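Regression test case RT-17, inverse folding.

Input:
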């Protein structure tokens, strides 16, 4: 079992930056593949980025080159650095975790593969 708490959301102008953090408690953080998802009003929750236990990173095409995911196992933290934000990035952002054995070198973009979720943090980008 792991508990996830996100922080760092807020209101920013288009072109600006935000840094989201997710702190995990419970089982050893290094045993989890971590992901970020987002959900805009009236839309499905969608994949944003993930970092495997090996450290490999994966991104949705819509954020590639603008967002960076990283992890600090010593601090039980995963960070999503978001640059060049656009109004279409507006959503509630969720941190997620899975410790399924097959996700050491890879990570899933399917939200159903993640077993643990944070409460979400709102990101609003104004035009």
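Golden output:
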């Amino acid at each position: 079992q792991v508990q996830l708490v996100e922080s760092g959301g807020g209101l920013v102008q288009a072109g600006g930056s935000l840094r989201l953090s997710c702190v995990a408690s419970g089982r050893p953080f290094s045993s989890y593949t971590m992901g970020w998802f987002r959900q805009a009003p009236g839309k499905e929750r969608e994949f944003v980025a993930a970092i495997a236990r090996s450290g490999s990173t994966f991104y949705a095409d819509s954020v590639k080159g603008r967002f960076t995911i990283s992890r600090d196992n010593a601090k039980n933290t995963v960070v999503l650095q978001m640059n060049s934000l656009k109004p279409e990035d507006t959503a509630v952002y969720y941190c997620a975790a899975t410790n399924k054995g097959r996700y050491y070198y890879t990570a899933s973009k399917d939200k159903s593969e993640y077993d643990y979720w944070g409460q979400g943090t709102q990101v609003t980008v104004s035009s």
